[in-house]
User: Fold these one by one.
Assistant:
Number 1:
Amino acid sequence: MRYYKYQMDTNASVANDVPEEEQPKKYIRTFESDMATLQKGGVPDLAPFAGSSTAPNAADHPLPAAETPAAPAQTPPPPAAIPTLAPKPEPLPRPEPVAPPPPAKPNPAETYASDFSDRMKEANASTLTVLAAEEDSAPRAAQKTEQKSAHTGLYVSVSVALLVAGAAGVYLAYARYHANTAPVAIAPAVVAPIFVDEREQVSGTGSVLANAIEQSVTRPVQGVVRLLYLTNATTTDNNVFLALNVPAPDILLRNVDAMGGMAGVINVNGAQSPFFILSVASYSDTFAGMLSWESTMPGSLAALFPPYANTTATTTATTTQATKQKTAATGAPGPQQGFQDEIVSNHDVRVYRDASGRSILLYGYWNQSTLIIARNSAAFSEIVQRLATSRAQG
């Protein structure tokens, strides 16, 4: 094909440059040359090419040079028949588009439950059988043997120590929290008719209670008045005086009210002694009972109001002489035993003195419902003053 194209281009260029009568004879006929001949009114040489049916070879048929045109032929070849062009083939009809088949419906999702159910139906086995088979076919996990290191014991000891320390810390924290939040034990609210400086609890009855009061008298009072109360002093069925079980007349004991009174220790002029404040229901009955009790009262209360200790003869004589001189000068009763009427702080009292004229005990009324039993006039005056102050403030 390259040779054919080259020959066609060469002939075209030669035809354009060389006159027709001088153009060399063409040995190869082309479609372009035939068309050009027809357009000029000539008849192309349609004689078949006598030669090999194969394509011409450039070596066998060399192209003639443009400078040496070949001699024209003496006799023109017979006219060849004009070739007829083959009719243009009609286009094939397009095939109609075929509708695609409908998509196949998706199969239901396969799950482990469906596989398991199908497997049971195929094998005709129960659930327990399938589970047992799966368990038997499962690979056995290899048991790993742990090698104990040299520090395992140390780690265990440290862990135990930390646990013990943590438990101890939690216990201490709980104990401190419990101590801080525990309810405070409040002392029973014992009501006293006078102002007191301190309080002390005593217990027992009879002689045991009397001994407890004596011991309290020997301990210094932080102030002037110390309140003595029983454990059940807040109840209405007991107080210190009634708990002593003294052999007093019944008319007196029946009229003593358990509430409203008190027992205590008073410190006046450096001397401490017990005292009683009794709330009575009837002045006349209690006074009558006290008068009938005067003959045995010093002995009944000797444990709480004991006689003074005996002194030397010189001291006794000196005291007796001084007492006689005082009696002669003031007109006061001389030393004698038994209760005598006296006035202390503008209140009538009954005083029991010893042979030396010292007061062992006295009693008197602050008002119609309050009876006081004390050691001497100094103690009685202090109690009366405190009663007046407490009532005025109340």
Number 2:
Amino acid sequence: MKAGKQTWIFDNRPTILATAVVGGPREARGPLAEDFDLLHDDLLFGEKSFEKAERKLLEEACELAIRKADLKQEDIEFMLAGDLSNQIISSTFTSRGLAIPYLGLFGACSTSMEALALGALIVDTKFGNNVLCGTASHYAAVEKQYRYPTEYGSQKPDTAQWTVTGAGAAVLGQAGQGPQVVSATIGKVIDMGLKDPFNMGAAMAPAAVDTISAHCQDLDITPDHYDLIATGDLGRYGHALTLELFPKYHIDMPREKYVDCGMMIYYEHQPMLFAGASGTACSATVTYGHILNRMRKGELKRVLIVATGALLSPMSYQQKESIPCIAHAVAIEYSE
């Protein structure tokens, strides 16, 4: 069922049967390390390139999620995935190995909730019984996509963010025990004219607020409806700007309920952290690991995950284009 202009309500409430999150060495030293299923101690994971290492992350997360759901690969009817590498090669090559009917997605760092929203739509409408949703990012692979290769040694400003090396995957099903996807708000592309790829948090903040506003209006609710509202990867500067924008959108947001995944996955004292975390794996790993674990423990009953994405490319940056941004919101509820 559709509510308002941008929101889907899932009458059958697809269940998140299982999730899995995989991370790298920096994530292993962060405050959420215990919420990862698997952590690696180097950036190559035994592979010959960082791009192949990113693919391995996603393969591991998908295989773990399927196994934790007590299913086999042939039980999964559709796979929805995306990443930040050229032509989403990590997702495509992972799908090649899994041999599951595949829909490749690109929403930059909003891809995790884009996949979950579309996967829930497939399950809710009964066009599929079991759907796999996943995404991955790798610091060393993504830096060369959106900024400069790490080997170049470019100096970064305080507004820069560190790309999460990790992957998150979720298996959605028609029935079973677990958190349920109850609604999703599909965001609009918002472009405020910012052009700095080292300040993506500020560029994405207006898109996050616009989607939260649309979600509340479409469902006629306030932020108090949720125990927690988490944006994807705005970092410290984007988070601060979001708090400034809420009153302008007439959103009464309790500060204690609003968090940003980009500020949660690392300790502030970790070296070269800058403004926090970013990457498609940022919201995926924090949500599918830490936040859903809190829900399973009974600490949270209703959460809204607002994954944010900066839709730029090296080509658009070189041609002096500004940075279009988007945010997709998914509401998840859990009651035993």
Number 3:
Amino acid sequence: MGVYREGKYTLKFTNLPVLAGTYTVAGPIEGQGPLGRYFDLVYEDSLLGENTWEKAEVRMLHEAVDGVLKGRNLRASDIDYLIGGDLLNQITASSFAARDLDIPFLGLYSACATFSEALIVSAMMVASGASNRVVAGVSSHHDTAERQFRFPTEFANQRPMTATWTVTGSGACLIEKEEEANKNLPRLSSATLGRVVDAGIKDAYDMGSAMAPAAADTIKRHLEDTRQVPEAYDLIITGDLSRVGKPLVEDLLSQEGIEVMRVLNDCGIIIYDPKQDVHAGGSGAACSALVTGGYLYKELLNGNWNRILLVATGALLSPTTIQQGESIPGIAHAIAIER
């Protein structure tokens, strides 16, 4: 078998699944950010020519999957499974995109951690021999998320500085067995599945604080299971903890004797320029997908990094649980990407 357990929470892949290609679709604000040149397709209008934001999100995911297939001269019939999700109720953006792609679909939900979860499930299927080619894809949209979780954009409510800006975009990754792929492409080498951690945070405008304990827990357990120090990675990057959650992770791990400040960064911090008035940074399922599929993947191909640990983070709330006064559980899933 190509998958085995290392420690208590971590999976190691012996038949290393290959990250054979990526394709990223970004909204206008994301394209204007510091990573805009790394994205494959940038739209100037968040509606993408559609008549609703929800239809725009479906279109972004469809185009991301089409783009990653065309990049490898593949058709939908060459793909064994499509795995992914989004933030909308019943993951409708992903399901509606999948209905036109004619690929067997497995829908996932870990909020903004869905991207790393999709990569992990895809890697398990390829490494175990259950599949030759899998596409992992996720999406999010600022306006669909605002309408569902907070207030419609037209309401123009004031947000506190701890709030994040949901990334408008989609990212798709092609995961193949080694025989199918170029030998020089990055591999997915290990993954640590996260536990649900609840710090008691009830402020839906401070998801960085809610998710930070889960991120620290997953990083700690990954390093323990693999018997590594943080510097074994060129970069440990969380999904969307923002400027609020990242320092909390550093503090929580420092209390455990783990110093990560030199190698830790966050997708939600680097995807936007602070001058773009996104408050604490970016969030959303597409946040880690755009940064990984665009910026990180291309820097790995260029040889600027050799080993990256992606720790996508998710806040497991819903409008109903917030209205009922529930706290916000967090989740974080980690996956190692190596040249």
